[in-house]
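pasting for ref
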Amino acid sequence: MGTIGCAILGTGNIGTDLLLKIRRLSQVLQVRAVAGIDPTSEGLARARSLGIATTAQGIDGLLALPEFAGVQIIFDATSARAHLAHEARMRRLPDTTLIDLTPAAIGPYVVPVVNLHAHLSERVMNLVTCGGQATIPIVAAVSRCAPVHYAEIVASLASRSAGPGTRANIDEFTTTTARAIERVGGARHAKAIIVLNPADPPMMMRNTVFVLSEDVEEARLADSIGQMVADVQTYVRGYRLKQTVVFDHIEPGRPLHIPGRGTFHGLKTSVFLEVEGAADHLPAYAGNLDIMTSAALGTGERVARFKYLRNAA
């Protein structure tokens, strides 16, 4: 069916990991250009060594590259603030799809295994955050079995895997992840916490998910969660349960108090996840990179087939 040209904005850990992952795995996407703002960045040097057109002039330089004429999908791996300017420039290119790997929250939130099918025609889509990609599928697995009153997630990342862009987006991370847990995961209320762990040797990405829902049969819920984990593993091989799902029934006479949200009773489900990276750029502890770039790759390929290759055929 051919390939679709794509470009990557951002030459940090996420942008570099995505570049290497697309080249290693994709038969649908071809990276034609990479743009950054630091002419000495390792990411730009890596792209140049692979024979890819590069620019250190950001979005302006990317749009001026001759190779950009063949680009139909752009991945933004910069920062939430930078994405606001990039999205405004991309409005002039209605036939180009912008896939956002920052927590800028422009366009619909997309978690491939949960709702990508509903947004394949969008011009801009937001991949939430690494914590969102890891935990929203679990919340969605619960909400398809019973109404979810509240969900709280804690994403713990190795400090070494969090580059300047990730660190600059901490506030946006918590806000965007929480909103996406509600809108995509189906929780009535949500809270997100991120922890940068300086442990040496670096720890794997860990995610803890607490969900309070209406009572439902535990076996049914465990099956739903297990199936969702298997679905995520189709594009993130290192995604797994760290231990058996834990269920705790909260009785009406002894409700659980959630600060700022009141009291709740029903079924509390605790899920503990680990994400091991594919080590395309950083070592395997950087599961936060892998889950974002794997989601981006999967999204880009499905968009390419739906919007561009289908029309070409």
